[in-house]
Design brief:
The complex is a heterodimer of chains A (688) and B (570). With 688 residues, chain A is α+β, with helices and mostly antiparallel strands. In chain A, 53% of the residues lie in helices and 17% in strands. A two-stranded antiparallel sheet of chain B has the order 1-2. The chains are: A alpha+beta (688), B mainly alpha (570). At the A-B interface, helix 7, helix 10, helix 20 and helix 22 of A face helix 14, helix 15, helix 17 and helix 19 of B.
Amino acid sequence: MATKISIWDVTIIKNAIRDSFLKLSVRHQIRNPVMFTVYISCLLTSGLWVQAIIGKGDAPPLFILMITSWLWFTLLFANFAEAMAEGRGKAQAEALRKARRDIIAKKLSKPDRHSKMTLVKSIKLRADDIVLVEAGDFIPSDGEVIEGIASVNESAITGESAPVIRESGGDRSAVTGGTQVISDWLIVRITANPGETFLDKMISLVEGAKRQKTPNELALTILLAALTLVFLLVCTTLLPFSIYSVTAAGMGKIISITVLVSLFVCLAPTTIGGLLSAIGIAGMDRMIQANVIATSGHAVEAAGDVDVLLLDKTGTITLGNRQATELIPADGVQIETLADAAQLASLADETPEGRSIVVLVKQKYGLRGRDISELGATFIPFTAQTRMSGANLPGRQIRKGAEQAIEIYVKQMNGIFPESVKKSVRVIASKGGTPLIVAEGATVLGVIHLKDIVKGGISERFAELRQMGIKTIMVTGDNPLTAAAIAAEAGADDFLANATPEDKLKLIRQLQAQGHLVAMTGDGTNDAPALAQADVAVAMNTGTQAAKEAGNLVDLDSNPTKLIEVIEIGKQLLMTRGSLTTFSIANDIAKYFAILPAAFAGTYPVLNALNIMHLSTPESAILSAVIFNALIIIFLIPLALRGVTYQHVSAASLLRNNVLIYGVSGLLIPFAGIKIIDLLLTGILHVL
Amino acid sequence: MILENVFYPLAFYFLVLLLCVKPLGAYMARVYEGKPCGLDFILSPVERLIYRLCAIHPEKEMGWKKYLFCLLFLNLFGALFVYGIFRLQHFLPLNPQSFNNVSPALAFNTATSFITNTNWQAYGGENTLSYFSQMTALTVQNFLSAATGMAILIAFIRGLIRHETNTLGNAWVDITRSILYILLPLSLALSLALTSQGVIQNFSAYKKINSIEHSQEQIIPMGPAASQIAIKELGSNGGGFFNANSAHPYENPTPISNFLEMLAILLIPAALCYTFGVMVKDKRQGWAILFAMLFIFIPLLSITIWAENHSNPMFTALGIESAGNMEGKETRFGIVDSTLWAAAATATSNGSVNSALDSFTPLGGLIPLWLIHLGEVVFGGVGSGLYGMLLIIIITVFIAGLMVGRTPEYLGKKIEPYEMKMASIAALIMPLVVLLLTALGVVTSAGTSSIQNPGAHGFSEILYAFTSMGGNNGSAFAGLNANTFFYNTLGGIEMLISRFWAAIPILAIAGSLVRKKIIPINAGTLPTHTPLFIILLISVILVLGALTFFPALTLGPIVEQFTFWRTYGY
């Protein structure tokens, strides 16, 4: 996203307040069964209030009015929570819409830069149209580059201002509508029809317009609805129970409908019920903040369940290129001699490996770079036939290359390939490195150890994942020996060597058959089948259209380690739901102690013993419970939006922590809260 | 004093119970897994003969709907059979007292009561039913209803352990094996042991004797009691042969018979936890459930014992010394054995009594009532207790699973919207019928006219009656004339709904779970055998039970107890 917006942005709050009233429509309320019962309760007590004003009422009109207003507040607070969660998404959607302004596209009659060109509006473009985009133009719609190479500014989508290269063929051919070509030109085949572009999808996703209840949210809604039903039953049957008791005791008054409704709303899981959709929306929003676009809420939830992670070695676990880390001279050769030869052979070698050799000898052996032309040297580039590179200096022929190539080279010059070097080669290979032999003329000088460099901090990351119960599998095209060594160094649990895209797909299927949920990242077209098969598939935004379509999440930063963050967000979402459910249910105990003595002490005075909070009057006790029930929603909005903090510990410890925090506090807080509200109410009444 | 009179007998009881859990549990697991169990040499020819006679194909597996249909069919047939016998009792043999046909409402109530494993008795056995009715109608249903509960449990367990398939086993086989290999041998052994203590077993006509005082004539009822008492306790049925149930000297003559019968009440429900552990191949899961049950049972039992050990302050005020509240209790059992029985028979859905619950202190009577309110999952009925418990575990796992950030799962099976829907339906049924019918009972004259004690105690009596029938427990608080058209009919319907409406969602969950994959366990999996999970499970059971029934209990026993304390001090 181009801009990060704070949750507490003033416009968002303003809009949310407006929306909380708009959301009072029946059509909206009926979607949430728990809050819908509160809605009905509000209407009922409002009616009772009117009845109390115009005639004989169920209770004093002022009391009913106070209860009714707080019941409406309960509803408004829940709406406010949802509106707040939607707020940031809406603001972002607004920003994205600006990127979708009308663009005049240069439509070509055939894929040739000089063919007939017509100017059409971008919204008129359909799939398979061909357009030309030149420097300064905006790309009119999603498409695939079929000719040309250009740098493109994609900041409107990714928030990343550095331009990226887009070219025909390969894995960097996809372009997104609304991005701008900075230099050169492209011929693009449009791949999306109007309204189906990536930008359109993103807008509807961040807006939450197409939000459907995810399976887990649905299951929780069912549980909450069942609890609500139980409490509805408890409260309705209290009326006959009260009638019997009043007759039997011969004193007191039959419980009023207002009190029964208050009791019901207090007991119903309104806290979690009111915050449930806000939690879901906030979860999607956190993904967006992490620059990941989820194509469905389902994917976010599934991310929390993932227990196997497939990670590509190159770029994810290791830095992209191998680097020289060590020089091992042959027996009887000075290390300086080897370093000197290695440097000379690599000075003009522009490959990353060659450059890393120059850097190594400079850092380790203090040999500064020399100008190859001053030395009168000629560079011998690598060819597929010789499989060597090097330099020819006056009187010196220096070569570096793979073991077999150098062996043939020195034998041709009647040299011998020393045993000590062969041994070093084996040692390096067993460590997962690549040996590069350096020879001068017929003499083998020694070996350069080229090594995959594991990214800093990756093994700690993997250890954390292991604690979370997630297994990491490294996928690489390397041979098993090299793969094993790197996997061990990085701390991956397992590896797939000599991997082809088919192997990857097979591995995923096999893991899934064992019951695992598999996550992976990918960018190439050949990753698409595996991405489609994986339960959570993060496609890189730089990747091909096929990969993006196969994935259920798109990472705009194209950062392969993002997967770990995605999993955390998924877990956080579920944890927030669970913790607030526990909190909500635990709250009910205190509410009974507030309302039951208030409702029945008139009939059975001994029940005052249950008034353990010593609330001042029955009316104030009931009102305090209702007010607490409404205010707690407001207090928990930040938690619902931010999510419960996720720690990298085992499930058992997580459970213990969350039960202690949310269960125990859920039990105790309402006792304190209701007492404080009662004291305030009594104080206010006293002053009045 | 307390050590000798309270602690030692209880410790001995629980020790013996726990010692039986493992061998019996392991034996039952072998029975249900179809493995050799030691009795095959006698029983398997019988078993094969039964299958041949009934044209049962034991190897034919059933999906959940078929399994359910078989059980419902069997029970419907059983109900009609019992109803028929009662209505024709007068024309049938073995009726030395020539009792008349049973009235339609009572016959309906009793038939549903015995097929649902409730054994609510709105009649007195010795002055209503012939020996033929007791034996062919009631004792047979005692076996069948217990076996039905066990079969549903086993089907549910198969739903957890099998994966990616559709079938849960064969209902006829599970019923047959439950009876043949488990209930019959145990009942045989227990009834023999009971007759050694003096429990009667004969077909004689009632004896007339002249009592010593005032040379009045007294009638002593007779009958085949021992054979019915054994299965009554083992199968968590609880329907007494005589009206006084297990307080009657011919049902329960000595402390030894009392001990054996109390042991039999908890025996199978406790051992099934171990069976569960063996069948899911993780015994810790079974122990965790058993411990959760014990940790609810023992504290609640202690409260009852504490309450009953207080002498009645009304007597003390009159200058009468008494060691605890002995009203309504048999002197040959005393307070501890009476309260232990009351707690055990209400924690399980057994519902037999050896003392009058109506005469307990309010707090002492509240505990048995609340034990039924907890859903009959603390031990519960044979089979039904554990499947009820598994249902609550599913709900607990759902909330706890969310708290660890994963889609909740139990034993590797994911808990999804369908399971939650069915679990919610199953869990809702008991509170629904109990609260609605109690509400109906306390505001209609048909309901209140049966009350014998006015005030809050009358409320407790109606609440207890509908709780007992709604929980398929069958114990009576007494003090309420339950043999009326109102209570017989509504109670009969209530028992049917509670038992069979719950069976449908339970088997539906099993049918859904059996199709799922088993997710491998790792560090991210919520462990369901740890002390923390046990505490959580206990909390869910207690909180759900309290939240649902606290208001009703407040207006009954709680008011009574507070009044008691307010009047006589604490």
